[in-house]
Design brief:
374 residues, disordered N terminus, seven-stranded mixed β-sheet, 32% helix, 12 helices
């Protein structure tokens, strides 16, 4: 018999015993908010639970599911966001960042925002073809575009699939400006495309660096590039003439927040020219997943962390309102902004985004069954 939809409350007990899965941010395939059935393990007397426990100790493998997307461009109407359009070649992300605001999107696929988000990656294998169709339309007008806004366009599976590479090739062909936000050193592979576009003022890259501590990075984002490797990527991009900034996001109080100035200093020394940060957000299923992660890894300060987040969010665990969701409110939010601006000014880092150059855009040709005459 079906039950009412699952309601996820921040006050619910820990989702799993206090144990982690090596190389994964989540410790469970927690149910999503659209689940209508509850499941409970029952010992059948044949040792099934013992066998299942042994199997669950094995690290879960990553499964890539190919998808042929109907559309690839997403319009963004939020006043909190400084771009108009986004492209996400993948759904889900193997980096496993426990704080990822995109985790709840797996719920729409009837998959868990927990382990499924990290281990079941949807690859939009026809992304470049759909993008060519969109850009070739007479109705399309070039707008500010960001690659990889929900999940990282350069996550590990990209090395094998090359979907992002084909998208960037098309953007270079069309001289369409775009930005990238990534945690991956894999973007260095595409320097042959990015560097010439940078000369034309058509590209900018932001490396997300949340911590300089390797041990903390392994807990926060277990399959992303190490902090030192990301700094080397900033240097490689800057040396190639690609404008590169640093995103210290999300800022988590009492976890990575004390490192804010040190991260900015390291990024500036590596060649970053701009910086921004966003306080941690806990929408939908991210909230219980994050609180479970806190209980497992930082039980001594979990209460303090959540109390400070609530101070930042008007007494709530999360605030989804436009105008405050990306910045927070109150004394602590103001202090964070002041620290960022003061450090950025001292280091010569810009806070504003580079102006987008749209005039160079040229519409791509669609493939024709007859070929081209000339």
């Amino acid at each position: 018999m079906s039950r009412p939809p699952l309601r996820i409350a921040a006050a619910q007990p820990a989702l799993v015993p206090l144990a982690s899965i090596k190389g994964r941010g989540s410790a469970t395939a927690m149910p999503h908010r659209f689940e209508r059935h509850e499941r409970e393990q029952v010992d059948d007397g044949w040792g099934a639970l013992d066998q299942q426990a042994a199997e669950e100790r094995l690290p879960p493998a990553t499964q890539v599911i190919e998808e042929r997307a109907g559309t690839i461009l997403s319009s963004d109407q939020s006043p909190d966001i400084a771009f108009d359009t986004s492209i996400n070649p993948y759904r889900g992300c193997e980096h496993g960042c426990i704080y990822c605001f995109a985790r709840p999107t797996h719920s729409y696929l009837n998959l868990s925002p927990g382990l499924d988000f990290e281990t079941r990656i949807i690859a939009k294998v026809n992304a470049a073809e759909r993008l060519r169709e969109a850009l070739a339309s007479p109705r399309y007008q070039p707008r500010s575009l960001v690659l990889g806004t929900a999940t990282d366009a350069y996550q590990p599976v990209e090395r094998r699939l090359g979907i992002t590479r084909r998208v960037v090739e098309l953007l270079a062909e069309c001289r369409h400006p775009f930005s990238v936000v990534t945690k991956s050193s894999g973007i260095e592979r595409d320097l042959d495309l990015l560097a010439p576009m940078a000369v034309q003022g058509l590209v900018s890259v932001y490396l997300s660096i949340t911590t300089l501590d390797n041990a903390l990075a392994r807990l926060l984002e277990p399959r992303a590039a190490a902090p030192a490797r990301r700094l080397r990527t900033i240097r490689a991009l800057a040396d190639a003439g690609v404008p590169v900034g640093v995103s210290v996001s999300p800022v988590i109080p009492f976890i990575n927040e004390p490192e804010l100035e040190r991260i900015l200093e390291a990024a500036a020394a590596a060649g970053a020219s701009s910086a921004f940060s966003i306080p941690v957000r806990l929408p939908w299923e991210v909230n219980p997943l994050f609180q479970d992660w806190l209980a497992r890894h930082f039980p001594d300060r979990a209460g303090r962390v959540m109390a400070r987040i609530r101070d930042l969010r008007g007494g709530r665990d999360n605030d989804a309102r436009f105008g405050s969701r990306m910045t927070g409110e109150g004394v602590w939010a103001e202090l964070l902004r002041a620290r960022l601006h003061r450090a950025a000014a001292r280091l010569g880092l810009r806070n504003e985004r580079r102006p987008v150059q749209l005039a160079a855009f040229r519409r791509p040709q669609l493939p024709s069954a007859q070929g081209r005459l000339f």
